[in-house]
Amino acid sequence: MKKDIEIAQENEMLPIIEVAKKLGISESDIDLYGKYKAKVNLKAEDFDDKDGKLILVTAINPTAAGEGKSTVTIGLADGLSKIDKRVCACLREPSMGPVFGRKGGATGGGYAQVMPMEDINLHFTGDMHAISACNNLISAVLDNSLYQGNPLNIDPEKVVWSRCLDLNDRSLREITIGQGKKINGVERKDHFCITVATEIMAILCLSKDLEDFRKRVERCIVAYTYEGKEVTVKDLDIAGSLCTLMKDAIKPNLVQTLEHTPVLVHGGPFANIAHGCNSLIATRLAQKLADYVVTEAGFGSDLGAEKFLDIKSRIGGLTPDAIVIVATIRALKYNGGLKEDELQTEDLEALAQGIGNLDKHIDSMSKFGVPICVAINHFESDTQKEIDYLADHVRSQGVDVVFADGYMRGGEGMIELAQEVVKLCKKETHYHPIYDIDAPIKERIETIAREIYGARGVVYSEEAERKIAMYEDLALPICMAKTPNSLTDDPKILGRPTDFDIHVRDISLSAGAGFLVIYTGNILTMPGLPAHPNAIDIDIIDDKIIGLF
Whole-prediction pTM value? Predict the structure, then answer.
């Protein structure tokens, strides 16, 4: 089969004006970014109270074997379009960190892709740059205030706002700034995080509009004074400049699938170190424009889906109508102990050993009161015996299972899943978050650890205990920062482990976004590059990009 980029480059796109018409969007309501990309100027508030059905696509824990959650999301949207449903997909914007690192992009694969994939995976419409500039302007003004006599009485050792970059660069995790001459500023320790882990990204994705963005960003805590008083962005008096930088980035981006299904791609927080969902602005707008909205949340259901249901839906007043859990036979065999080079061979014993990981995700998602089904994402190496075994096992759990073949066949291979989703959406949803927002912080954390991860308990560091005492009165959602590769906080433990503890080492307050970030294990907010990064393989020859997946 051809590479993803080859399939994409051979595809003929529709002018984005024509794609917009499928959703009833006129040319006057979009800002064109070339022929195939546009910013949408409409808001959900411009429409009546009617909302399209909201379908969340999630998955088992990611493995080196591949799961294809984004591919299923895109393929499902095409499948719904194939059965004559008015549909819009909502996806996150890729970070260039993984694009040039190891993981790759986020535009799907095979014959279930979003176009133009090269643009989306690279600079797109400039949203990531705007977010980075917004974040780093705060740092620049803060350090300038320190240099210009420190009128806010900031303690340089208690600056909590970090700079950012939308690339993987481990050398910037811990740095010293202001070195050398006095004119270089106040010398202090600083650090970088990746753009998609910043609070600015979270605020973009949880804001209702630019005015809401302004209110949220003003609440961001950037430092503490020598007396321990909070210093916020409002104290820096730069909210106007920050909103000016974000005036275009706040608008959703309209693109299309290979089959010309409309897609809103907007916002891109990681789910392991942030809340892992596309923007509320895009999701709420899509529900007004389409009868069915298909969206995804990062990594496995223990991270992205939990945060979609406990953070995004709670803050945004969303009510999901259906949840699709994606699994692959390859990934389940990997969870069962097989090595990556052994996955091509039929092995029912390894499948049986690894299937517990899927069982836990089914169990976790069933606790939110939303109808669910399982999609088996097809790989050529899947045997009929393995397919039958997995399907029978899932049905024995009382959950419907559908074979999904969007990668190989596009929307045509997703019709069965589309029909199943339509059937699920006719059921009554009883959506509810998994924890009470007014419960003690430890109870909120431990509910997630116990009910979603299957943990025995939670162990807190002294620093975490101190922060809990500091934030105990804050009734905010919890954003867990945890490895995506395991239900535990140890990435090496696969399957469905039992009798384990989650280790909380630190807690931070994202006052603007409106949640508490709980750091577990050794999770990092600035990834590093692998020994052979994708950056080595990417090139442009005769104005044609190669090596981009």
Answer: 0.96
Spatial contact of 217 and 207, defined as CB atoms under 8 Å apart: no
Helices (H) then strands (E): counts for the chain: 20, 25
Phi, psi of 225 (to 5 degrees): -80, 175
Is the C-alpha dihedral spanning 223, 229, 233, 236 positive or negative? negative
Distance separating alpha carbons of residues 454 and 358, to the nearest angstrom: 13
Domain chopping of the chain, boundaries? 4-125+249-425, 127-245, 441-520
- Domain 127-245: give its CATH superfamily: Domain 2, N(10)-formyltetrahydrofolate synthetase (3.30.1510.10)
Dist CA 131 CA 246 (whole Å) = 7
Phi, psi for residue 278 in degrees, rounded to 5: -65, 180
Distance, in Å, from the CA atom of 94 to the CA atom of 101, rounded to the nearest integer, reads: 12
Question: What integer pLDDT is reported at residue 255 of this predicted model?
Answer: 98
| Residue 420 tokens, joined | 């199943």
Contact 55, 324 (CB under 8 A): yes
**CATH architecture for segment(s) 4-125+249-425:** 3-Layer(aba) Sandwich (3.40)
Kindly list the averaged pLDDT for each block of 10 residues, start to end, along the chain of length 549. 89 97 97 98 92 97 88 97 98 94 84 96 96 98 98 98 97 96 96 96 97 98 97 98 98 98 96 95 98 96 98 97 97 94 93 97 98 94 94 95 94 98 97 98 98 98 97 97 97 96 97 97 92 92 87
In whole angstroms, give the CA distance from residue 312 to residue 110.
Answer: 30
- Please give the single-letter amino acid code of residue 446: E
The percent of the chain in helix, strand and coil, each rounded to the nearest 5, is: 40, 20, 40
Output the six-digit token pair for 233: 């962005």
Cis peptide before 371 (omega within 30 of 0): no
Taking a C-beta distance cutoff of 8 angstroms, is the pair 260, 78 a contact? no
Q: What is the pLDDT of residue 246?
A: 98
Instruction: Please give the C-alpha separations between residue 445 and each of 58, 187, 218, 438, in angstroms, as whole numbers.
Output: 21, 37, 27, 12
pLDDT for 548 equals 83
Sign of CA dihedral 252, 83, 312, 170: negative
Identify the CA nearest to 108 among candidates 251, 307, 259, 250: 259
Q: How far apart are CA 407 and CA 69, in angstroms?
A: 11
Q: How many CA atoms lie within 13 Å of 3's alpha carbon, on the beta-carbon side?
A: 9
Q: Sign of torsion, CA 425 427 428 432?
A: negative
Evaluate the CA torsion angle 212, 218, 222, 225 in order and state its sign: negative
Residue type, 97: G
What was the pLDDT predicted at 102? 81
Query: What are the residues whose beta carbons fall under 8 Å from the beta carbon of 282, sequence distance 6 or more?
Result: 90, 252, 264, 265, 266, 267
Give the residues across from 223 on adjacent strands: 159, 231
Rounded distance between C-alpha atoms, residue 102 and residue 55, angstroms? 29
> pLDDT at position 547, please?
85
What is the DSSP secondary structure assignment for residue 99, as one 8-state letter? H
Q: Which residues contact 154 (CB under 8 A, 6 or more apart)?
A: 142, 145, 146, 223, 224, 225, 231
Note the CATH architecture for domain 441-520: Roll (3.10)
CB 300 within 8 A of CB 62: yes
